[in-house]
Here is the input.
Amino acid sequence: MSAQPAGKRAGRVMLILAWGAGLFLATHFFGKLEDQQRNPNSTPQSIHTNDYVEVRLASSRQGHYYATGQINGQNVEFLLDTGATDVAVPAELARQLGLQAGAAVTVRTANGQSIGHRTRLKYLKLGDIVLEDVAALIAPGMAGDEVLLGMSALKKLEFTQRDGTLLLRQSTLQ
Here is the structure.
């Protein structure tokens, strides 16, 4: 057997590196695209008028409303849920956010009953909408990092949904 010329070996190495870089870039691109389709509201935009602050959210491909926001100054991902009585924070995320567990309460979910703990959020932010002193639950059975944005927050806003867009308004009139 004869050895390959150095130029031919270098060409093969470059071809393999080019394929590897192409696969990496394609994976990165499609991963970002998938994230964007799941949460099209990673940076919600706000509209200000004299009477209100408005945030428009686009629905995900599955028809859910996800949005990136903040709890007590730390970034979180919200899943808006008008069927949830309170804002529900997964227990592990609540620990990371430094939320204090209050009174125990029985939580009824689609997965059955569990014991959660009441807590209060100093503030919750979605776009330029800021809600202060929001009732919440620390939910031990919730997996993942998504916070259910329930009615304890949403009842402080005017909201309407039409054609895949959810419009949230916070009055600035006192």
Q: What stands out?
A: Helices lie at 6-38, 91-97, 151-154. Residues 46-171 form a domain with the Cathepsin D, subunit A; domain 1 fold (CATH 2.40.70.10). Residues 11 and 17 are 10 Å apart (CA to CA).
